[in-house]
Specification:
The longest helix is centred in the C-terminal third of the chain and has 127 residues, at 1273-1399. With 1823 residues, this protein is an alpha+beta fold. The protein starts with a helix and ends with a helix. The chain is 45% helix and 19% strand. Strands 1-19-18-17-16 form a 5-stranded antiparallel β-sheet, with no helix packed on it. Strands 2-56-55-54-53 form a 5-stranded antiparallel β-sheet, with no helix packed on it.
Length: 1823
């Protein structure tokens, strides 16, 4: 049966074309289809025959069932679509080369192996759940359809791809199957899977395809997606059959993304996911809209996949672990608004599965009406979800949990059937592979990278695990049975096993890659990718011993076995280095500064590639073997042949041997090949397995004796190697032995297991020949890096990079049950006292110090402390020396000056001080450099503070205080007004239409002008014929004078007529139209419409906002800005006045002080009792000069520094420091105020002592005067006068001071009242500003919609205007074409008139020439329509010449038949030459003119036909444009309506805003029952001025109404009167026209154009032509007389020639009769004569007949020449020879019969030759 299937597969040919746009369907032969149908009915497959089997070396004793699959513990959760549902309790997923059928309830597993052995690419389940599909990997993989539940193959689909399938899926009814392959072909194939036939096949795309599916709504549509693309397919029927047509999706402005999932919608749209978490709605092959959540949030965090459309919801999953349901209607009708392509929508339902969950695919339960879904979690789990989204919906349930990603570490217990694994998903799991279940899981903060089970020497119970993590931490984990802990403590914990942290330490700063215990269990070694290996002493607490550095990242650690004498550690590095170190002594003294062990004995080895050398040696051996074989064959041939040329053959063969193929070159890979694994063979020797170029061998290596060289520069070669079969591209990744070392297990790069049987003690692996191999993990990425044997060698455990973990048993299941007594692994019991131990502190910070780093840091801290202590001691010593030196200086100062030492003498050396100065300068510069950044930072901070607090205000708040009162006046705090940022708005530009209109008119004009010019040119070309005018005809003087006067008279008449036309035109222009309205009325109506406004309330629903009153955000911002500027202007003006008042106070204070000083001077000269007290002098308060607050001096800064230092000495905490800083500023200000007060007191004290001094001096003088002599009367009088003057001056000064103070206070009061009024106005302005701001916020909400609608309307208007211009342009072109057609028709009529005029009257050839003119000729289309006239004439001449040649041929034929007496030959000749030969009697010029006119007529007809065709095309285009214009008008109207709705809605929203209007009670007139109601909502707020204006307007309108009624009556009467006047004028005009016509008939006999008659003037050209006509008539008459004489002569010659021809004809007739008589006689005689004379007479007769025929021929030629001569003479009136040609010889006389006889004797051809020579010139002339 299988052979038949294979034959069928070979005979089936699948034709596919690699074209993404169309793929042809394979057309199978009818015979093949019939055979396929017949075979499909009989086919039957068995799974046992198809499944892949282990590969075993031939002729080996290895059994096929060496390993038995026990269980699968993993799940490839990163594989796309790796979860399907067969029924309500069975899940299937891919595990490497296995398909796992998992029972949900019992958790039992069943397995199906891959049939190809190359892995499984994808799976799918039939909609009926009766079949499922397994698409495999490998070379030419197959798709196998299995029946369920029998699990037997139903059909096999072959030839769909080359390497692997990436996805398969059924259509909605399950009749078709779609598959897509991976690289390199990416083939998309549609299968009729029941018949195993290809329906359609083509290449999908040259990128990785993740998914392909049929549309559930349209069976002819498919969709595929993948890496950076999505493609839409359609099965289309063409004339060649069914094809797949693909359309690539274009992302446009959206960033390209990988598309993992999508959902087809019923209307053909597709919703797909993206990498960033938003949904993409595809319409056609373009993105219609990108869907996100409100405020631009993503639909999911990370990748998103839509997966179903159910119950009006679009369901999506994401990598954030959330399931969301979206409204389908909103998404289906989603559309972008404005420039953004985003559409915002919120989910209807949401379910959070978990925080560390990454959902990648879901499948729905097969139960009807079920909401249960099963989800694949890329984080390593399978979830059960209820997506009913009701109040009773249960929480998500995690059915199964697995490792996620590649397995980093695996190890088995040495005492039980336990297995531990770890991965980068931060978990450590322990499995019981005997009971096939997971025992426990522990999770940590970082991912695990290595795990090892402690040997029994370390832990007797076998419950200790050592795990390494990616942050360099190593954790010791204890495994114990918590149920046994219950016996001790009485607690009942859950689970069968539990992991507990025993100890955590961090020896590395990079991931831990390997851990290994020493053979005695005393030392633990850990290796890391940072190139270090750390050793720990094993004990109750693991203590660090030290570490060594290795040349590369550590790959494997292996301690030497007990068979070796020395205890060493073999370190294998990924870079190819191998290092062997001696085991450190745990009891040795540890170094104090570092844990590094540089003195630890070590040996190193660096692998150097020898694979190319091995291949070279193999090639040499092969060639040597071939040479030996050829040599033997040659010797045998020589012995057998014994021939002499044998030596020559030998030399030839030796030459051929020299021409051997070249040997393969020596190749060393760069970079070196990676090292995968290795193990000890003997002390100092080890085996290595390499990857990359060096794979395919196991290399036996040993350490060199020379270890002095740098390990990085070493080049060591293996001393032996072992070839491994079929591993050049599949190296060994891991190796382990059975406990007895008789089985070698190898984990391969391809994910397969190899088992080699070995002989005992075979360290050199010589018995490693035969092997058993089985593909287990994924062949592409499931590298088998971990393989272990159980402690009893009954099980083999494998873990690969595909996340799968398998257990195999070396025994069959029956033997295993018999051999094992337990069905479960034994979990170790907890340690005694475990429950009382505290929890161990874990290392959770990834940035924590490692052991070595922590020690280095401690050492650095110790060194720093020691340095600080030394520095402190030095400083103390220096302080003591300084103290001694100061004491010496004091002692020196206390000595007498003559023994005191000078400062120069105290200096030991000048260079010390110079050096100190240099150091000081250097340190100062260093400090400045060091503090440069801080200085810049502080300056920037200061500038920011100033900008924020000081520069942000236009001016500081200044408070002006009155002098005598407590009134104060402060300025406004004004922020700096920023310039408004110009907002770019898309506004409609009406000017573009005008520009386009002007451009269109220019285009129409430019298009019309060339057409006009071309028409003119064509008209001139067709109708105008250049006539050669004479040089000039001289007119007589009388004729010239008459012409001049006529011209003057005509010019005067023309000017008069033009003036009259202009007057009439002006009159008609002023004449109004019948429907015209008075412009004044129109203007009045326009003003009324603009001013009267819309009488409807703004709150009315049908209120339409006028265009000039429509408000938008920009206008509202301008209003708000204007209001702010107005407020700021008012406040600035008030601030200016206040500042002016402040400045006046400053001047007043200085003035008062000056006046006070003057008063003091006056009072110094007055007596004390005459002194008046001075008024209190005002001072400028700090708030009056706030700008002085920011002024500081160096002294102020220095004082602040001192205060700050004092405060720092008392502060201990930073917060107190900040508070102290603030108090420092207050203290500094208080000190400044105290200083000012002291200055004021000092100033006052200066005034008071002066007064007291003056009074004292005055008293002294008085006492002196009293004691001395008395004053005279004059002196007393002068003293009284001086006293009176001083008193007056004192009083005036004091009065001035008081008046100045009062005036200042008054000005302040007035300004204060103004400011209060301004405050009231500003408060109203603030209310107005608040209203404007509310309106602005409201307008902002509508701005986006309004802008989008306005932009849409502008686009519609632009399109409509463009369409109008196109239509106008098309109509203009059409009118132009119609005008051209009319002109062409006029020209055609003019051409016909010209032809009729050329015929004249009573032309006898009129009928013939009319036929020639109107004859229709089929003309060849010319390449160029506008050729010159010469080319057309030449073409026409060629046509005429060709027609004449045809006529000549016909004439020659007629001449040949002339002897037959055809009497109708002349008639046929005339009919044939109807339009090519001018008939006799017709003028040749007239005939030629007729032919030319016919050509012009044909040109005009062709041009007219072309113009009509173009006009018809333009007419169709106009109709199309009219339809488009109508549709555009309707769309514009709809856009206007939408915009009007927005304006109306905006107006309604603005009407809802509250406006605050402050009113006095006197302004409220809304009174009910004499009282003001509490509710004023129905009241109306009006401006009193506006109300008064409206009342006055009512009275004005009543007056205007009466005036308009009177005007209407007057206008009606005038209208009736004008109608009667118009009727009278019409009747009068008719009478005058009748009289004018009668007078014209009487004078001219017909109606003439009087204007043309008046403008008629003398035509000089006409007079010249008349004179020329007279002259030419005289000349032509003279010439006609001459030609008449010539014609008469020619007529006589013609008569003579005719007579001669007649005689010759008569002679020929007689000869003909004689000939007949002679023939009759000859015939009679021949009958009588004998036989001997018959031949002679026949010859004679034949000769006579020949002569007669030649004679007839000659005569016919002569007759033809004569006819031509006659025709020529009849046309031209005689034979005219050109000048210089000799005259024709005279005609020979008519020969008599005797002469004819004589001439015939001379020769039969002589007369014909003579005649031919005579008439040849005439023939040439005729031609």
């Amino acid at each position: 049966m299988l052979e038949g299937v294979a034959e069928q597969a070979e005979s089936t040919q699948i034709g596919s074309q690699e074209n993404t746009e169309g793929c042809d369907r394979e057309n199978s032969v009818t015979q093949q289809e019939e055979s396929s149908k017949q075979h499909s009915a009989d086919r039957h497959y068995k799974y046992e025959e198809l499944q892949s089997r282990p590969a075993i070396t031939p002729d080996s004793d290895i059994p096929e069932n060496l390993l038995h699959l026990s269980h699968s513990f993993g799940y490839d959760s990163r594989h796309r679509g790796n979860l399907q549902l067969l029924d309500d309790r069975t899940l299937i997923f891919i595990a490497g080369n296995l398909l796992v059928l998992l029972d949900i309830s019992t958790k039992e597993q069943r397995y199906l192996r891959s049939c190809s052995g190359g892995g499984i690419g994808s799976i799918a389940v039939h909609p009926s759940k009766e079949y499922f599909v397994v698409a495999e990997k490998g070379n030419q993989p197959n798709i196998i359809v299995y029946e369920y539940p029998s699990l037997q193959p139903y059909s096999i689909l072959r030839g769909g791809t080359e390497q692997a399938y990436s996805f398969v899926d059924f259509n909605h009814d399950g009749s078709l199957l779609a598959s897509v392959g991976s690289a390199p072909d990416f083939m998309l194939t549609l299968w009729k899977w029941r018949r195993e036939e290809v329906m359609l096949s083509c290449k999908a795309i040259s990128q990785e395809v993740y998914r392909v599916s049929f549309s559930p709504y349209n069976p002819g549509l498919l969709t595929s997606s993948g890496s950076g693309h999505i493609k839409f397919w359609k099965m289309a029927s063409t004339f060649t059959g069914l094809k797949l047509q693909g359309l690539m999706g274009h992302f446009g402005k959206t960033a390209a993304t990988d598309i993992n999932g999508y959902v087809e919608l019923p209307d053909g749209k597709v919703v797909s996911g993206s990498d960033w978490g938003n949904l993409l709605l595809w319409d056609g092959n373009a993105i219609k809209v990108e869907i996100c959540r409100k405020e631009g949030r993503n639909c999911h965090a990370g990748m998103v996949q839509p997966f179903a459309l159910e119950d009006g919801q679009l369901m999506t999953i994401g990598s954030d672990g959330v399931v969301r349901g979206w409204d389908f209607e909103s998404i289906d009708t989603a559309d972008s608004n404005g420039d953004s392509s985003m559409f915002e929508v919120e989910p209807m339902n949401e379910m959070v599965v978990g925080h560390n969950v990454c959902l990648s695919s879901v499948v729905k339960s097969s139960l009807p009406d079920s909401f249960i879904w099963f989800a694949q979690d890329s984080s390593g789990a399978i979830w059960k979800l209820d997506l009913s989204f009701t109040y009773t919906t249960p929480d998500p349930e995690c059915l199964f949990s697995f490792h996620a990603g590649l397995i980093q570490g695996l190890d088995v217990s040495r005492k039980s059937h336990l297995m531990a694994t770890t991965t980068l998903d931060r978990s450590v799991k322990v499995f019981d592979f005997l009971a096939k279940r997971e025992l426990t899981t522990s999770r940590f903060n970082q991912g695990g990278t290595a795990v090892s089970w402690a040997p029994p020497l370390v832990n007797q119970s076998g419950g200790l695990l050592v795990t390494g993590f990616e942050d360099g931490v190593v954790r010791l984990l204890e495994l114990y049975d918590p149920q046994r802990l219950h016996v001790v403590t009485g607690r009942s914990p859950k689970g069968d096993a539990k992991l507990r942290l025993k100890q955590a330490f961090k020896p590395h700063n990079a991931p831990v890659t390997a851990v290994a215990y020493e053979r005695n269990g005393e030392v633990l070694a850990t290796g890391s990718s940072d190139g270090t290996v750390f050793f720990f002493a094993v004990g109750e607490k693991y203590s660090p011993i030290g570490f060594v550095r290795v040349p590369g990242p550590v790959q494997v650690l292996e301690w030497s076995p007990h068979s070796h004498s020395e205890n060493r550690l073999l370190i294998l590095c990924q870079s190819g280095h191998v290092v062997e170190v001696q085991s450190p002594d745990p009891e040795a003294q540890k170094p104090a500064k570092t844990f590094e062990l540089p003195e630890l004995p070590s040996r190193s080895f660096r692998f150097r590639s020898i694979k190319s050398q091995i291949k070279r040696e193999e090639e040499i051996a092969r060639q040597q073997a071939v040479k030996e074989k050829k040599k033997k064959e040659r010797e045998e041939r020589l012995k057998e042949s014994q021939q002499p040329d044998a030596e020559h053959e030998e030399e030839k063969e030796e030459g051929e041997e020299k021409e051997e193929e070249g040997l393969p070159p020596i190749h060393i890979p760069d970079p070196p090949s990676p090292l995968y694994c290795g193990f000890y063979s003997q002390p100092g020797q080890f085996w290595l397995s390499m990857g990359g170029f060096d794979s395919g061998f196991l290399y036996h290596c040993k350490f060199s004796e020379k270890q002095d060289q740098d390990p990085d520069q070493r080049q060591d070669e293996p001393f032996d190697f072992l070839p491994v079969h079929n591993t050049d591209d599949d190296p060994i990744r891991s190796i382990t032995f059975s406990s007895n070392r008789q089985l070698l297990f190898c984990g391969m790069h391809s994910g397969s297991i190899r088992v080699y049987p070995l002989q005992p003690g075979d360290h050199s692996l010589t018995s490693m020949q035969a092997y058993w191999a089985l593909s287990v993990h994924d062949n592409q990425y499931g590298h088998l890096r971990h393989i272990r044997c159980s402690h009893d060698d009954h099980f083999v455990l494998t873990a690969g990079d595909d996340g799968n973990i398998f257990s195999f048993s070396l025994l069959s299941p029956e033997e295993l049950q018999k051999g094992l007594q337990r069905k479960m692994a034994k979990v170790p019991s907890p340690r005694v006292g475990l429950e009382n131990e505290p929890l161990v502190q874990d290392i959770e910070d990834p940035a924590a110090y490692s052991i070595e780093t922590a020690k280095q840091k401690l050492e650095k801290d110790r060194q720093r402390r020691e340095a600080e202590l030394k520095i402190a001691a030095k400083r103390k010593k220096l302080a003591e020396l300084q103290k001694k030196f100061k004491q010496l200086l004091n002692n020196n100062q206390s000595l007498p000056e003559h023994v005191r030492l000078k400062p120069v003498e105290l200096q030991l050396d000048r260079r010390f001080s110079d050096q100190a100065e240099r150091l000081k300068a250097q340190r100062v510069s260093e400090v400045r450099k060091h503090m440069g950044w801080e200085k810049e930072r502080c300056s920037i901070a200061l500038s920011k503070l100033q900008n924020w607090f000081r520069d942000s205000l236009e001016a500081n708040v200044v408070t002006v205080v009155a002098i005598c009162t407590d009134h104060r006046l402060s300025t406004y705090r004004l922020p700096v007004l920023t310039e408004p940022v110009p907002r770019l708005r898309r506004q409609s530009r009406p000017s573009w239409a005008e520009g386009d209109g002007a451009a269109a008119s220019e285009r129409r004009k430019s298009k019309a002008d060339p057409a006009k010019d071309s028409s003119k040119l064509e008209e001139e070309e067709v109708l105008r014929h250049p006539v050669a005018r004479p040089a000039g005809i001289k007119l007589a003087d009388r004729q010239v004078e008459r012409l001049r006067k006529a011209a003057e008279k005509a010019e005067q008449a023309r000017a008069k007529i033009e003036r009259r036309k202009q007057e009439w035109a002006q009159l008609y222009a002023e004449k109004p139209d019948e429907n015209c309205e008075d412009p004044q009325d129109v203007q009045a109506i326009r003003e009324a419409k603009e001013n009267i406004g819309d009488l409807k309330l703004k709150s009315a629903k049908d209120f339409t906002v006028p265009k000039h009153l429509r408000m938008n955000a920009e206008k509202k911002r301008a209003q708000l800005r204007g209001l702010e500027e107005n407020i700021c202007e008012k406040q600035t003006e008030m601030n200016r006045q206040i500042m002016a008042l402040r400045d006046s106070k400053v001047r007043l204070v200085s003035q008062l002080r000056a006046q006070a000083q003057q008063v003091q001077k006056v009072q110094q000269r007055l007596a004390a009792h005459l002194h008046r007290p001075l008024p209190a002098l005002p001072n400028m308060l700090p708030e009056e000069t706030p700008e002085k607050k920011l002024q500081y001096s160096h002294a102020t800064l220095e004082r602040y520094r001192l205060l700050r230092q004092q405060r720092f000495q008392t502060m201990e905490q930073q917060e107190e420091d900040e508070e102290g800083a603030t108090s420092l500023l207050g203290q500094l200000e208080n000190e400044k105020e105290e200083e000012k007060e002291e200055e004021e007191e000092e100033r006052r004290d200066e005034v008071t002592p002066s007064l007291s001094a003056s009074s004292v001096t005055r008293e002294e003088e008085e006492t002196a005067v009293e004691e001395g002599t008395e004053l005279s009367e004059l002196e007393e009088e002068l003293q009284r006068e001086e006293e009176i003057r001083l008193l007056h001056k004192q009083d005036s000064l004091l009065e001035q001071m008081e008046s100045s103070v009062c005036q200042f206070d008054t000005e302040l009061q007035l300004l204060r009242h103004q400011k209060l009024r301004l405050d009231w106005q500003l408060k109203l302005a603030d209310l107005r500003q608040l209203t404007l701001y509310q309106e602005l916020l409201l307008l902002k909400e509508f701005e986006r919609r309004e802008d989008s609608l306005q932009e849409k309307l502008n686009g519609r208007i632009k399109e409509e205007n463009s369409m109008k211009y196109k239509l106008e342009e098309c109509n203009a072109q059409l009118e132009l074409k119609y005008g051209e057609i009319a002109k062409l028709q006029e020209r055609e009529k003019a051409l016909s008139a010209a032809f009729q005029a050329s015929l004249g009257k009573e032309n006898k050839f009129e009928e013939f020439l009319t036929k020639v003119f109107k004859k229709k000729i089929k003309r060849v289309k010319k390449k160029e329509q506008t050729g010159n006239e010469g080319e057309r004439k030449e073409h026409r001449d060629r046509n005429v010449f060709a027609e004449e040649e045809e006529d000549s041929d016909e004439d020659s034929d007629e001449d040949d038949d002339w002897d037959d007496g055809d009497s109708d030959s002349d008639t046929e000749e005339g009919e044939a030459a109807l339009d090519t030969v001018c008939p006799p009697g017709c003028e040749p010029d007239l005939f030629e003119n007729t032919v030319q006119l016919r050509e012009r007529r044909l040109d005009l007809e062709e041009l007219l036909a072309e113009k009509k065709r173009s006009a018809e095309a333009l007419k169709k285009e106009c109709d199309t444009l009219v339809k488009k214009e109508k549709s555009l008008k309707s769309s514009r109207k709809a856009a206007e309506d939408d915009l009007e709705l927005v304006h109306r809605e905006k107006q309604q929203k603005m009407n809802e805003l509250d406006v605050v209007v402050p009113l006095r009670l006197s302004q409220i007139e809304f009174v009910t029952n004499g009282m003001m109601p509490s509710d004023l909502s129905p009241a109306l707020v009006l401006d009193k001025t506006e109300l008064r204006r409206l009342q006055e307007r009512i009275k004005q309108l009543q007056v205007e109404k009466g005036q308009q009624r009177d005007l209407y009556c007057q206008a009606r009467q005038q209208h009736v009167r004008l109608i009667h006047d118009r009727k009278d004028m019409d009747a009068k005009i008719q009478v005058l026209e009748k009289q004018c016509n009668e007078l014209m008939m009487m004078k001219y006999g017909r109606l003439v154009d009087l204007q043309a008659l008046q403008m008629l003037s003398g035509n000089r050209t006409l007079e010249e032509l008349k004179q020329e006509k007279l002259l030419r008539e005289a000349a032509y008459a003279k010439e006609i007389k001459q030609w008449d004489a010539k014609v008469e002569e020619a007529r006589h010659a013609l008569m003579e020639v005719t007579r001669c021809n007649t005689e010759r004809l008569l002679t020929m007739t007689s000869l003909f009769n004689q000939k007949k008589d002679l023939e009759h006689k000859l015939n009679a005689r021949q009958k009588k004569m004998g036989r001997q004379f018959q031949d002679y007479r026949r010859r004679v007769d034949q000769e006579a007949i020949r002569r007669l025929r030649e004679l007839v021929k000659t005569q016919s030629q002569q007759a033809e020449a004569l006819r031509r001569e006659i025709g020529l003479l009849s046309r031209k009136g005689g034979h005219v020879l050109p000048p210089g040609q000799a005259p024709l010889p005279p005609l020979a006389p008519v020969s008599t019969p005797t002469r004819r006889t004589h001439a015939s004797r001379q020769g039969p051809g002589h007369p014909s030759k003579q005649l031919k020579a005579q008439y040849s010139p005439s023939r040439q002339e005729a031609n």
